[in-house]
Amino acid sequence: MKNIFTFLLTFLLAGMLGNTYAQQRTISGKVTSSEDGSGLPGVNITVKGTSAGTVSDADGSYRLSVPADATTLVFSFIGFRKAEVLIGNRTEVNVTLLVDTRQLNEVVVTSFGIQKEKKELGYAVQEVKGQEIAETNRPNFVTALQGRIAGVSIGTTSGMAGASSQIVLRGGSSLGANNQPLFVIDGVPVDNTTKSEGFLLTDTPNRISDYTNRIADIDPNDIENITVLKGPAASALYGIDAANGAIIITTKKGRKGSVRIDYSNNFTIENATRFPEIQTKFANGSWVNNVPTTNRNTLSTWGAERPAGEPTFNNVRNFFRTGFMQNQVVVTM
What we know:
The protein is 13% helix and 34% strand. It is mainly beta. Its main location: membrane.
């Protein structure tokens, strides 16, 4: 009886183990390059829809245990196009990966429209895409650079519409001279100051009137990208005018091929939310012999207490209305 029980238990375990092995199968093969046919090491091979995977060895060979119901292997490697291959009933799957010619090296514009690969530069640069600036929907794109460039300080003369914005890279270098970087638009240097406007936000011309900084005339939707050069690198390319750095703006241009039209539309609604407190208990007036007298032409002192039920007006609050702005942009390339 004991022998029969042992035989049945052994038979059951063997059946379960065989079923487990039947649920897995091993796929092997080699991954090669389409350029020279050499094996590619370090290629990621995964079973589509699962976490099972492996990497190819030094000569491009691989070996992977996959579920019995696996249908597709995914091969991916930097610089090559991803490939998805059906397994079928095969146990050996060889793959040739195509070079991805669509992957472009990161290119920046340095001086006078000259383009160089970023890895070839011997100095640090920062780049901001024009789309990031346009998405902020700010009329003055200089204010949109805040928080997108390291070491930048941006100040505005006021919170009014059309207020000037000034930018300083890595702090000011002069107490009385201009601390702003040089702006270069498609190779043409542009001054960001305006006539009769001071270099400092506290200068008298800036407090009396505001003519808006000239770079604000650029439509953010026309900007392709912005490259920022700091320190000696800017001076070496643009001279003493760029001693405080240089901001190089490349605008959008037409491209070979089919015509492309970009349209964007945005709405802005603004309301003033904070107003100064106004007293309505006392009327305008003055004090004569320690007696308050009402004088409607006096604004500097208080007069007698207003009669009950006398209407009062908050002219500051009544002056403001709901602001509405609509901006529609059509760009043809």
